[in-house]
């Protein structure tokens, strides 16, 4: 009788292992992974991106009142267009300057390319492009529409955080730390966007106070 009990326990244990592991094993996972990678290549990837410390990017966007993001978009599109890969052989239209200028629309496409490339390289992607793009545009609308300086600053924090989060995912691709320290090359774009940001925010706040 004891042998039967031992047999049932052992058999039951083996079945539980099978039920929770082997039964659910996907024997075609390699084929599926290959198919998924082909889909990603068809939709479009890039082997070139602009790398900057995500905290530095957040600080630059914030202190310039959000305007530094257009420089970031320009640098990203300049790199992406150079390294863009698509098995559909459909080139991206427009140069980096036009794409940065129309960043409110091209942000979705950039976020999609970043997420697809991260997935292709087995790195964790950021939030879905439609979600991050919608929140980004909503935060911009909140900066313009919300009353009071505090609310505008909080909206600006969100506006700066979303590109920084995308950059955080990008920075995992090279496999080495991207410094957040100030670089001399940052001076010109930072000063120009800072001056423009001061003018924009001054005009915005004066309009509110009148």
Brief overview:
Helices cover about 70% and strands about 0% of the residues. With about 210 residues, the chain is an all-alpha fold.
Can you characterise this structure?
There is one protein chain. With 210 residues, the chain is mainly α. The chain has nine helices and two strands; from the N terminus they run ααβααβααααα. The protein has helices spanning 2-20, 29-43, 54-63, 68-83, 96-101, 103-120, 129-145, 149-170, 187-209; strands spanning 45-46, 84-85. It has a two-stranded antiparallel ribbon with strand order 1-2. α2 (29-43) packs antiparallel against α6 (103-120). The protein starts with a helix and ends with a helix.
Uncertain ranges: 4-12, 14-23
Strand tally? 2
Question: Compute the gyration radius: what is it?
Answer: 24 Å
- Class by helix and strand content? mainly alpha
Taking the sheet with the most strands, its summary is:
2 strands, antiparallel
Summed over residues and divided by their number, the pLDDT gives a mean of: 83
Q: Which percent band covers the strand fraction?
A: under 5%
Tell me the distance between the termini.
93 Å
Bin the helical content. Answer: 55-70%
SSE sequence, one letter per element: HHEHHEHHHHH
Shape: elongated
Number of DSSP helices? 9
How do the strands line up in the largest sheet?
A: 1-2
Task: State the main characteristics.
210 residues; mainly alpha; 9 helices; 2 strands
Map the helices and strands.
Blueprint: H1 2-20, H2 29-43, E1 45-46, H3 54-63, H4 68-83, E2 84-85, H5 96-101, H6 103-120, H7 129-145, H8 149-170, H9 187-209
Antiparallel strand pairs: 1-2
Helix pairs in contact: 2-6, 3-8, 6-7, 7-8
